[in-house]
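Box 3.1 A note on notation
Throughout this textbook, protein chains are presented in two layers. The first layer is the amino acid sequence; the second is a token string describing backbone geometry. Keep the layers aligned when reading.
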Amino acid sequence: MGGNSQSTLVSQLRSQFKVHADTHSYTFLHESGRDLVEEVLTYRQLDRDAREIAAWLASRPEAHRPVLLLFEPGADFWRAFAGCLYAGVVAIPAPLPHDQRSMGRVAGILRDADSSLALTTAKLRDLLAAGIEELGLARPISCVAIDDSPLAEAESWTMPHLAPDTVAFLQYTSGSTGDPKGVAVTHDNVLNNLAMIAETLSVNTDSTLIGWIPHFHDMGLISVVLGFFTGANVVAMSPLAFLKRPVRLLKAISDYRGTHTASPNFAYNLMARRVAPEQLTDIDLSSLEVALNGAEPVRRTTMERINDLLAPAGFAPSAMRPAYGMAEVTLMATVSRGVQRYLDADADALEQNRYRPAINRAVGLVSSGEPGPGTDVRIVSPENLQPLPDDHVGDIWLRSPSVASGYHNRPVETAEQFRANTSDGDGPFLRTGDLGMMHDGELYVTGRRKDLLIVNGRNLYPQDIEELVKELHPALADSLGVAISVDANDVESLVLIHAVKHRLLGDVSYPQLAATVKTAVARHFEVAAPGVVFVNHGGIHLTTSGKVQRASMRAAFLKGELDDVLHEELLR
């Protein structure tokens, strides 16, 4: 479904809200002690609230610029987001600031987007207004609560003119705090990606989507809009509710007969570690058709653990669907069609950017599936920009109607990332920044180019090192770590910075744990023993969606500014 069709994103949403006005809904599960209590917003109510907000936005000169949405997880965000869509106003889903670092991120977004209006709730308005005022921005920002009273009459709303290239929202990527980039996603991009996802994952009006991912994350945002687009039911909870008790997601799938859910790999890993088999006694997962796994490297061990844990509760192995995508392509580019495929790649060959079946050391690779309809995936040599054949590792480039129009107000970065051409002039393609290969028509992602560690002339992927270390001791298993390379005495060497849960150390001392890590990494990857730094959980820098910020951690290490250090044994 593209921009040439008569349907627009707004007309499609309105049509679904009208047909399913009182039979379908967005349900948010609020925490109340150990229980979750539902707040139900019918599609009739959501449509009315969106029209009220849209009619009001049409009268506000500040809405000619992108509008910041600062909300707690729940129905109010979706009222505001749908209102922006209905008004043809560019929305910015953003994380609520909770400290100085995250307030700095909001400041960076406001400067980059040149915004002058923020929507929020009465509960948060005064606090946010005071915080924003202290930022000393060049342009004043109005903070308006959408729940004080109806902002306008719903009946006064009129459908805006929406061209295919009208920007629907800015998805700010998890970059450095002061320099976030807004991916400008058009109405046509959203329509195309939603249609592709609905087709490949069989999402329709009989589906029920269950989720917990933040609304300011591309996977969390598009998952819910997908429900509206297809006329499905949507059930959601806050990230905190899920992270505190991961079994809650499984219980919601069971209670609401969920058909589709999505999470990054770390969340499935969390469930595999934190959900006990006895917690599944009354849980029935037989309704679940799709458990999307994307947004970060997908791990075979995690998928196998989930299958083993959840099979007795009716979880079908075919439900687990590894996928690949990013905000720059709206959300999804490739997805497994229900048969998981793995490769045991020879480590020596992979370090030379080739795939062959393992002879000695093996690296496990998971297929991210086939390209979606209309999606062209190319593997390109970074040296000469020539397309590479199957089983060769190179840069992943994408071409699709879902590829966003570029970065907001950043023509140079847009040209570099979104307008790439191969050596034979084919293009434009999106440079994803990821490395991977095609094999039997499916994409295998091997890592990010900027994260690649080059040690002794060999290409090592930090995720592989970090995964190994987690298996070495319970105090490391549930914690995050980051492998970086540094120049020590004119030699590129490894340093591993890892969070430790002190209460799980048992009789093992920090020096003993460090020795275990050094020996295991040196033997498995055939490198000199790495430097090791153990930190508390707060010492690992994370993005708003919970991914490790490797560049930020490396910079902090080099400056001697790591936080919460418990023990360190550095390179000599």
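The chain has three domains: 9-323, 341-449, 452-569. Residues 452 and 461 are 5 Å apart (CA to CA).
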